[in-house]
């Protein structure tokens, strides 16, 4: 039996490729008459129809069929799958355990498996045999985050003009849905003003510079692994008290020689000084002896080693390897790490840095208009994210010509064409031109593929490496596409995927407006709120960069905490404001669902909300959102006059026929996390009452704790 391991990198590529291929939309009218083999007909009539008759027809047949759904006419496979939306709805309700209802006879596990397997297979067949017409792709306007990031990468300016733009509309929980990203007159005015301001800021001449650079890291910026607690007056150092390492992921810009420097001093014990192994990609390149300052004849705190390194993202680590402690004398051999720096490439030649707009200047035999043509062609191709036509460049050159005629110098003359590029629909919108294709489905070209990938992972335009693969027509090669995906996930720009995608998928943006009652939860403040958010962001980042299995989102036995959040969780060994990766073994927490950020944003100000928590899991994790509540649903009162546990007080909604179907799905999941209060702190009592986290799902699966429930959901 072949095991398929789905990892987060595969997820990113699969999500992206699924979107890139075009999702197919089907309507009842689009489904053709299905041919049915004798074997298929026999299977339906002999194995499926009897189950419908036994468990469904009691309520769903005849003139008084519940929900106005009469299943009795669907005697054959052809009858049912000619109405594919109905078949899909039946499958969804059976698979979710909503049907048959709790008060009716239910199929056995074997009968359920048989029914679900059959319906799933036939639904897939019906889709594959149906008419494939997804419609035309909607022009998608850059949202505010995408606009800022694109300006940053296109023009290399530290400028965020979109902060002044109107808030983007939300569709399906996300702010990058093309059909809701409209262009109101106010926003058009903002675009015009922003283009002028950007041109003034961007078109500043640049001179000579060396390509060699220095990147310095304070010790507290390094990632610890088993060692490296904050140390010093301002916690800016790291104290290495046991064998382990600290590291940083560094993007080496080119092949060459680099100087890697370490500032540290030792705390002596035993018969040898502390040893630090310098590693690049986990390979030892140098071992340093870190003497105490007072015993080192040179009084050194700085250590340097020069080594050849290949370009690309590399792990640079410093491993403490010879820890020593004398129990009798209490002598402890340690290292105090103060900081590191990486400089290079040291053998890089001096070059002239070219401006992102002014790549070519009018000098020698190069005339101003020809320099402008080449500059604008390169700029427009990057801004429009595709090759440009000669007539497009000619329109921009007319603006350049007009500025030259009035006496502007070359740089000033480039400002107006730059503004025109920045307000062009081809820059402001991601446009996929389908008019040349008569087919309802066509293959994306490489530039469209590059654009979709970069805006998915970076919320920004493609970089030069992605553009180059597009020019060569190589992005349809799965191996090359996967290599770019892995490379881009390691790039710091992938932080946009955490902030934008994860922030909206997990609804983390709502955490900033959460308002727990300060009287009931006096320990909650902005510091704790910030720590909650940082934990989930770091967790999501590891899921991407370390390529964990997809189900690790639910059952991960690790998380990231600083001292404040650790105290909130009852974890005692974490000190300082820096976040550390901790193991959750022996605790009642696992994965996303027990993180304080999720538990807080799915609670009410004064108490937990099993309904909100259950609804969040159904929507964000299982992808099976419940329908909106009826208009007269009302709210559960928090009045102090009400007696009993929260579970007892919520019995009424589940007893109401109009409310029961949804509450029977949501409430058990929500109650599974009742051991965590409204700010995610673990508890065993709710006021005077013991917490009862157990429950039974509509599928019949039972659990006794949050950890049990996590296993079922996984």
Report on the structure:
It is a single chain. The protein is an alpha+beta fold. It has 25 helices and 22 strands. Strands 3, 5, 6, 8, 11, 13 and 14 form a seven-stranded antiparallel β-sheet that branches. A hairpin with a 4-residue loop joins strand 13 and strand 14 (331-344). The longest helix has 21 residues, at 109-129. 30% of the residues are buried. The model is unreliable at 18-34 (pLDDT under 50).
Computed CA radius of gyration, to the nearest angstrom: 31 Å
Q: Overall mean pLDDT score?
A: 85
What percentage of the residues does DSSP assign to strands (E)? 15-25%
Tell me the span between the first and last alpha carbons: 20 Å
Shape: globular
Layout of helices and strands:
Elements (H helix, E strand, L loop, with lengths): L7 H14 L16 H18 L21 H5 L2 H12 L13 H21 L10 E2 L2 H12 L29 H18 L5 E3 L2 E6 L4 E3 L3 E3 L5 E4 L3 E9 L3 E12 L7 E6 L2 E7 L12 E8 L2 E9 L3 E3 L4 E14 L5 E3 L15 H17 L5 H16 L4 H4 L1 H8 L2 H4 E2 L15 H12 L6 H8 L6 H13 L4 H11 L20 H20 L6 H4 L2 E4 L1 H7 L10 E4 L12 H6 L8 H12 L24 H4 L1 H5 L4 H12 L13 E2 L2 E2 L4 E2 L5 E2 L2 H8 L1
Antiparallel strand pairs: 1-16, 2-15, 3-14, 4-7, 5-6, 6-14, 7-12, 8-11, 8-14, 9-10, 9-12, 13-14, 17-18, 19-20, 21-22
Helix pairs in contact: 1-15, 4-5, 7-11, 8-9, 8-11, 9-11, 13-14, 21-24
């Amino acid at each position: 039996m072949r095991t398929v391991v789905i990892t987060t990198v595969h997820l990113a590529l699969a999500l992206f490729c699924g979107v890139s291929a075009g999702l197919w939309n089907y309507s009842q009218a689009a489904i053709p008459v299905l041919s049915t083999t004798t074997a298929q007909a026999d299977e339906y009539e002999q194995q499926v129809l009897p189950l419908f008759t036994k468990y469904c027809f009691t309520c769903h047949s005849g003139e008084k069929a519940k929900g106005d759904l009469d299943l009795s006419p669907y005697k054959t496979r052809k009858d049912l799958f000619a109405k594919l939306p109905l078949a899909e709805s039946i499958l969804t309700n059976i698979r979710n355990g909503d049907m048959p209802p709790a008060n009716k006879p239910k199929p056995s596990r074997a009968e359920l498996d048989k029914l679900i397997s059959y319906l799933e297979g036939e639904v897939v067949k019906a889709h594959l045999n149906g008419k494939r017409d997804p419609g035309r792709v909607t022009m998608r306007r850059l949202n505010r985050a995408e606009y800022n990031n694109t300006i940053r990468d296109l023009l290399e300016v530290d400028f965020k003009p979109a902060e002044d733009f109107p808030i983007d509309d939300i569709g399906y929980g996300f702010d990058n849905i093309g059909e809701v990203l409209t262009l109101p007159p106010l926003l058009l005015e903002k675009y015009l003003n922003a283009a002028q301001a950007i041109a003034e800021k961007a078109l500043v001449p640049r001179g000579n510079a060396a390509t060699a650079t220095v990147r310095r890291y304070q010790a507290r910026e390094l990632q610890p692994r088993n060692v490296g607690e904050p140390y010093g007056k301002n916690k800016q150092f790291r104290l290495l008290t046991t064998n382990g390492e600290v590291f940083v992921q560094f993007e080496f810009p080119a092949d060459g020689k680099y100087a890697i420097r370490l500032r540290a001093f030792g705390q002596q014990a035993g018969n040898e000084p502390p040893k630090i192994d310098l590693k690049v990609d986990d390979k030892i390149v140098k071992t340093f002896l870190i003497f105490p300052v007072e015993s080192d004849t040179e009084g050194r705190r700085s250590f340097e080693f020069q080594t050849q390194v290949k370009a690309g993202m590399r792990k640079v680590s410093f491993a403490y390897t010879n820890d020593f402690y004398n129990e009798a004398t209490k002598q402890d051999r340690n290292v105090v790490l103060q900081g590191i720096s990486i400089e290079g490439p040291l053998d890089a030649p001096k070059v002239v840095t070219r401006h992102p707009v002014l790549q070519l200047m009018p000098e020698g035999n190069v005339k101003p208009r020809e320099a402008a043509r080449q500059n604008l062609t390169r700029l427009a191709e990057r801004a429009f994210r595709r090759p440009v036509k000669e007539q497009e460049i000619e329109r921009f050159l007319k603006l350049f010509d007009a500025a030259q005629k009035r006496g502007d110098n070359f740089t000033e003359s480039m400002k107006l064409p730059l503004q025109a590029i920045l307000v062009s629909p081809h820059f402001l919108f991601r446009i996929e031109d389908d008019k040349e294709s008569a087919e309802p489905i066509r293959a994306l070209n490489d530039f469209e593929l590059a654009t979709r990938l970069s805006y998915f992972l970076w919320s920004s335009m493609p970089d030069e490496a992605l553009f180059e693969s597009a020019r060569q027509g190589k992005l349809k090669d799965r191996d090359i596409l996967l290599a770019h995906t892995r490379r881009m996930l390691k790039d710091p720009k992938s932080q946009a995927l955490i902030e934008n995608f994860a922030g909206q998928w997990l609804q983390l943006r709502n955490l900033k407006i959460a308002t727990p009652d300060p009287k009931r939860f006096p320990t909650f403040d902005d510091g704790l709120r910030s720590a909650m958010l940082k934990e989930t962001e770091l967790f999501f980042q590891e899921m991407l960069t370390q390529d964990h299995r997809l189900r690790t989102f639910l059952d991960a036995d690790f998380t990231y905490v600083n001292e404040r959040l650790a105290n909130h969780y009852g974890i005692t060994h974490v000190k300082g404001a820096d976040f550390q990766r901790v193991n959750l073994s022996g605790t009642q927490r696992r994965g996303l669902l027990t993180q304080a950020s999720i538990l807080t944003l799915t609670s009410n100000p004064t108490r937990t909300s099993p309904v909100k928590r259950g609804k969040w899991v159904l929507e964000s994790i299982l992808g099976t959102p419940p329908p909106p509540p009826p208009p007269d649903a009302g709210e559960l009162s928090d009045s102090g006059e009400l007696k009993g546990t929260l579970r007892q007080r919520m019995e009424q909604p589940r007893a109401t026929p109009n409310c029961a179907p949804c509450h029977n799905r949501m409430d058990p999941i929500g109650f599974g996390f009742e051991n965590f209060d409204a700010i995610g702190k673990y508890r065993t009592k709710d006021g005077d009452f013991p917490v009862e986290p157990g429950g039974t799902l509509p599928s019949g699966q039972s659990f006794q704790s949050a950890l049990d429930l996590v296993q079922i959901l996984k």
